[in-house]
Task: structure prediction
Amino acid sequence: MSLVRNLSFGIIMMFRQIIFFAMFIGMLNTACMAGPVNCGSKPISLAFFDYGLFHFNENTQSKGISPDVVKELRKRTNCEITSFVLPRARTWSDLSTGHLDMTVDGIVNEKRKSFGWFIPYNKIKNYALVKSKLGIKVRSANDFRDHPKLVFGVVRSFNHGEEHERWLKQMRLENRVEESVNIGILFNKFMLGRVDAIFAPPVVYRKFLKELNMENDVMIQDWAPSDKGILAALVLAKSRFSQADAKDWERLIMEMRDDGTFKQIFSRFLSQSDASWMAEVR
Result:
């Protein structure tokens, strides 16, 4: 009888150990699958917008810096991120109404702070693009303004940096600014001579000047030497992500910055000097 009791007790203890081990493995797997951020219970919706080498279509596939960044985010978080392309205005509208969870390369302003968490990971600086013939006599913003027949082109609602925006405000008072709805239309106007100069960062103008065969016809000028650049960020909708969630994503972005991941991604599309400058975000 004692032998039976001992045998039964041994079986029970062994069974308990098996259950405990299985539960431990399950918790371990869950922890590994959870990753460094809270993915939530449904896929994360993320919008790209076409903007130079940040995002472009090649054979119906999304290509560029932004898709490569998102690919890395998927890899590091194990989150299911559903990405698609939206117009810039629609992207901001959907983020504000809770119909979109995330976007990339967003630039903060006071209105956008009300509905989004902004985590910077790159920066851009706008340079003046001037046709070579005009560039002989125009070397600065003031030179351009001194020629009253010249018209400057911009994309509607773009932020070009504080110094450029102050100058554009004066140019608008003189009715010498022509707006376009997107960057592609702006470059076409520039090519056709409908505007005499435009602003664009290297990540944008390197793509369009090559495609339009204008690389030898344009002078790149720095009209704001003191401008240190505009921060561009991963944007999380407050309707989906809490402040604590945003802090976790921020830690992930800092990790990617510190281990050189962003510089490596930028270098696939830009020169080493442009990529290094763009990745220097502190």
About this structure: The radius of gyration is 26 Å. The CA atoms of residues 11 and 50 lie 65 Å apart. The chain has three domains: 1-33, 44-121+231-279, 127-221. The first strand starts at residue 44 and ends at 48.
